[in-house]
Write a structure and sequence with these properties.
The complex is a heterodimer of chains A (128) and B (353). Chain A contains no helices and nine strands. The N terminus of chain A is likely disordered. Chain A is mainly beta. In chain A, strands 1-3-4-9-8 form a five-stranded antiparallel β-sheet, with no helix packed on it. Chain B has 353 residues and is of the alpha/beta class. Helices cover 39% and strands 16% of the residues of chain B. Chain B has 13 helices and 13 strands. Chain B has a seven-stranded mixed β-sheet with strand order 6-9-10-5-11-13-12, with helices on both faces. In chain B, a hairpin with a 2-residue loop joins strand 9 and strand 10. In chain B, helix 6 crosses helix 10. The longest helix of chain B has 17 residues. The chains are: A mainly beta (128), B alpha/beta (353). The interface between A and B is medium-sized, with 28 and 36 residues.
């Protein structure tokens, strides 16, 4: 359900599961969501059990990489085998050019929000 | 200040007080005028009449004026020198209404002639939870099952649901299960529903209600508030029958007034609004794409108040972070299903909404 007075945005939903935990390297894949606005993107990651100081954000052209160390090991049992995870890690490819220098981020209640301005390349067209 | 009332009055149309008046907050969140408050009341009412419990309502209306309008305080004090306390309140409320252009059919009747709608906690009540925004329903209902030590009494079978069985510590669990304790029933689903399954599920819930003499149902769900700035999530109520207005009023739950609903919530509402069993949907503000146990705690506390049971939420509070990690896959699956539902929905053009 949603309230109609919320402003409209576009969401890029995952078509197939984007959560691939790396058991071998003890890496969890965090949930993320991407919203597109007129001149920027908002990329959010759900990073519970993480401290702000342990988050690393890097850019590689239009790919955003987020890596974070967990405050404590997270154990999960799958098929009778207990795996202990220590990190969150995920890379998201944005569907457009980005201005990584003007990117800002904030971390609240275990949610990382990255605001990424779009890079506008082009020239105006004169209307006759 | 409020005395036991000997009188009650009848108001047509019904109005509901917004939460900011009912709560003890010192000031409303937004600057409001008397006219805007009553316009809200009138715009959101339907054609029915309700007798309010004695003088509580008008006393609260008066409390508002008492607090913000010195002139009303003086008028009130003056008339109570000559007239009965309750009658002054009613007359003053009538005067306020009349002066703001709203009809107020004030009828003073004796208490012994009144039939006041009271929420009955002894009636069979059904709680329904399923994966939706923020997994609020799943978290809150499963926590209540666990906390109240409810017993599983059966499973809900749906022919179109792909065969799914969960294994928990060697025990086989169906995806949709029914629980019971005393007069409280619960149906919980661990799988999200697409549009077809949502309708089937809603009909199955109704069938369950008929078989178990359920008198009302409460559904817990999430309302997306991705741009929310407030720290504490709020909860809103949506009812299918006016009989449950009293539940919202007694528990100070603001009504959900505008918006669009799709998916399983909409299917259940559509089925129950045509039946004699009233349904209340509790919508807790939550993040739509991430599991939100914090919003679920608000829902649990509200549910506990409605059901008049004591529930300690410390356990879920301590496990918030781990629950968020644990339920990532279910959250992703739910988003995918909700997205499909939303795309299939036929919506009126923006201009007509």
């Amino acid at each position: 359900m949603r309230r109609d007075n919320d402003f409209e945005f576009r969401i890029t939903p995952p078509i197939v599961s984007s959560l691939f935990d790396d058991v071998e390297h003890r890496i969890l894949s965090p949930l993320s969501c991407l919203r597109e606005f007129d001149n920027h993107w908002i990329l959010e990651f759900d990073l519970p059990l993480v401290s702000k100081k342990d988050i690393k954000i890097t850019f590689d052209e239009n790919i955003v990489n987020v890596e974070a160390k967990l405050k404590e090991k997270y154990s999960e049992e799958k098929l009778g085998k207990i795996t202990k995870f220590e990190y969150f890690k995920k890379s998201i490819s944005l569907p457009g050019r980005i201005n990584s220098k003007k990117t800002t981020a904030k971390f609240q209640k275990g949610r990382l929000e990255i605001k990424i301005p779009k890079k506008v390349i082009g020239h105006p067209v004169k209307i006759n | 200040m409020i005395k036991t009332g000997h009188f009650a009055f009848c108001i047509t149309p019904l109005f509901t007080l917004p939460n900011n008046i009912l709560s003890n907050s010192p000031l409303p969140e937004e600057p409001i005028t008397i006219r805007s408050i009553f316009l809200d009341f009138v715009n959101n009412t339907r054609d029915f009449t309700v007798l309010f419990d004695s003088i509580i309502l008008e006393a609260r209306v008066l409390a508002f004026f008492w607090q913000y309008h010195l002139v009303w305080r003086r008028v009130f004090a003056f008339f109570t020198l000559f007239l009965d306390f309750e009658i002054v309140e009613i007359l003053l409320a009538k005067f306020i209404f009349d002066n703001h252009g709203f009809s107020f059919n004030c009828k003073i009747v004796k208490n012994n002639n009144l039939k006041i709608a009271k929420y009955d906690t002894t009636e069979n009540t059904l709680l329904v939870g399923f994966p939706s925004n923020g997994l609020v329903g799943t978290f809150s209902i499963s926590y209540l099952i666990h906390y109240l030590k409810m017993k599983q009494i059966g499973e809900i079978e749906m022919p179109d649901l792909p065969s799914t069985v969960f294994v928990e510590e060697g025990e086989l669990l169906a995806p949709i299960r029914a629980y019971n304790k005393n007069n409280l029933f619960v149906i919980i689903s661990d799988v999200p529903f697409d549009q077809l399954l949502a309708n089937e599920f809603a009909l199955a819930v109704h069938e369950f209600c008929k078989k178990n003499a359920v008198k009302k149902i409460v559904i817990v769900s999430g309302m997306e508030t991705i741009n929310k700035k407030n720290d504490t999530p709020k909860i809103y109520g949506l009812i299918t029958h006016s009989a449950l207005d009293i539940v919202l009023y007694n528990n100070q739950i603001p009504k959900f007034l505008n918006g669009s609903i799709f998916g399983t919530d909409a299917a259940i509402i559509s089925v129950f609004r045509k039946t004699s069993i009233p349904a209340l949907v509790l919508y807790a503000e939550c993040h739509p794409f991430f599991p939100d146990p914090e919003a679920s705690i608000i829902a649990i506390v509200t549910l506990a108040k409605i059901l008049d049971v004591k529930v300690d939420t410390h356990d879920i509070k301590n496990r918030i972070d781990k629950l968020r990690i644990q339920h990532r896959n279910l959250m992703e699956e739910t988003i995918r299903t909700l997205k499909q539902n939303q795309e299939k929905q036929t919506r009126a053009p923006q201009i007509y909404r």
